[in-house]
Amino acid sequence: MKPLIPDTIATRTLLVLIVGLTLSHVLSIALYFTDRSSALLFTGGEHVAERIATLSQLAESTATPDERQRIVEIADSTKLHILSTGDGVIDDQLNDGWQAGVLRGALASHFNSNGKQDFRLVYTEGALPKAWREHLNRDHEAAALGEALLVSLPLRDGSWLNFAAPIQSPEPFWSLRFALSMVVMLSAVAILSTLVVHHLTRPLGAFARAAQRLGVDVKAPPLPETGPAEVRQAAQAFNDMQERLRRFIEDRTQMLAAISHDLGTPITRLRLRAEFVDDEQQQKKMLADLDDMERMVASALSFARDEATSEPHAMVDLRSILQRICDDMTDAGYRVDLTAAREPIPLGCRPVALRRALTNLVENAVKYGGQAQVSIAETDDNVVVRIDDDGPGIQDDLQEAAFKPFRRLEGSRSRETGGTGLGLTVSRTIARAHGGDVYLKNRSQGGLRAEVKLPR
After folding, report:
1. Cα separations (Å) of 431 from 109, 259, 355, 403, 455?
2. What is the DSSP-derived secondary structure letter of residue 172?
3. Is residue 322 within 8 Å of residue 385, measured between CB atoms?
4. Do the bridges between strand 335-339 and strand 120-124 make them parallel or antiparallel, or are there none, so unpaired?
5. What is the pLDDT of residues 91-139, one digit of tens each?
6. CA torsion angle for 276, 277, 282, 288 (degrees, to 10)?
7. For the chain, what percent of residues have pLDDT higher than 90?
8. What is the separation of C-alpha 165 from the centre of its chain, rounded to a whole number of angstroms?
């Protein structure tokens, strides 16, 4: 079952970046809101304390209670309610809580300079004394007060000024502004991270494709040595490895060609000397052995020549290639049948090399099995050519050994049919150079099947 999230370096890096940055963003915004709320409350406490101190001084400076009451009525507002009474509305008690502490400190700093420290302060979350409820009910604002700080301040004449300062609730953490901030942040992180991660992981994909290409074509073009220093260093090391492999294969091929070429002269000399052998029976055996040696040398030279040839790729019709091979075999007197659709089967390949690989397999089928049945099967990714014969087949444990160079399986193939044991080797080499492979397996109804799988 295919995973919902691809298990790639790019995906893992993106997840780490997005999750990490999201958590850090949420934490930073939470700290910001906390600091902002504290700062707003502190600023508000300073402002309320300043207003209370100013109004108390103004009330002390009035000559009559009527003037004081008129000042209280004028100064009374929704942000700071004022009530003049004969006694303090709230009890003289210390109230815990950092909200009350902020205003207590601000009031103390103002009244210390004036020599006053006698005030009452309490924090409430809605529970109000009777005098405040009656006052607020008269203005229909009791329900809107909510959290508040209540202050009772004595005057010199024995009367009291009472203040109710509503606490403005901070903006909720989970708000539309927070949601928009998260969307903008995540979008920016996702886009920028995708671009950066794609840029950083793209060389890995290039390395993987180059390694796959090297497995089927050692003469593939080298990797471009571009990008950061580490990427350039890795690309240079890969190119050096590919060059060493290419030189190694070329040296081995040239050595095989040189040995095969040099063997031609002593074989010719031995053939001439064999003509002077008096024993006719021994002479025939010697000439037969020399013929076998000459065929082996010719096959080795042909194999080396094909390996050294760099044929360009071209788009061809695979059905037409197989039809020509089957027609040539039929003209040579063999029985070969092709089963394939009439529509063309386009395939990118090296046409001459692929024709030789398929010809070798069809020749093996007609030589060792008497006849060949060729068919083509297509999938989305591959084209499979099957070549069946009616011969004795090959034991399962010997099928892979049949692909080794100069290996002849005498128990399953007739010695009199000729050949040097390079046909299957060449066919598999060519198929793998195209990114495919050749397989052998025995048919249930008898005979052998050679299957050539080629990628589209």
Report:
1. 93, 26, 11, 12, 10
2. P
3. yes
4. unpaired
5. 755 555 556 666 677 777 767 655 455 778 887 877 788 888 888 877 6
6. -20
7. 5
8. 58
Element housing 122 (H / E):
strand 120-124
Question: Using an 8 Å Cβ cutoff, are 254 and 302 in contact?
Answer: no
| Tokens encoding 380 | 């989305």
Q: First vs last Cα of the chain: how many Å apart?
A: 25
Rounded Cα–Cα distance for residues 387 and 131 (Å): 107
Task: Give the span between the Cα atoms of 434 and 215, in whole angstroms.
Answer: 10
> Is residue 314 a contact partner of residue 348, using CB atoms and an 8 Å limit?
yes
> What residues have CB less than 8 Å from 427, skipping those under 6 apart?
356, 357, 358, 360, 361, 438, 450, 452
Chain Cα centroid distance, residue 2: 14
- CA dist., res. 422 & res. 403, Å (int): 8
DSSP 269: H
Print burial letters for 30-65: b (CB count within 10 Å at least 16), e (below 16). eeebeeeeeeebeebbbebbebbbebbeebeebeee
In 3D, which of 429, 390, 207, 209 has the Cα closest to residue 306?
A: 429
Q: Residue 226: which of 199, 192, 194 has the closest Cα?
A: 199
Burial zone of 159 (CB within 10 Å; 0-12 exposed, 13-18 middle, 19+ buried): middle
What is the tens place of the pLDDT at every residue in 380-397? Answer: 888 999 999 888 888 888
3-state class (DSSP) for residue 455 = strand
Q: Are 90 and 164 in contact (CB under 8 A)?
A: no
In the block, which residue shows the tokens 């093996």? 364
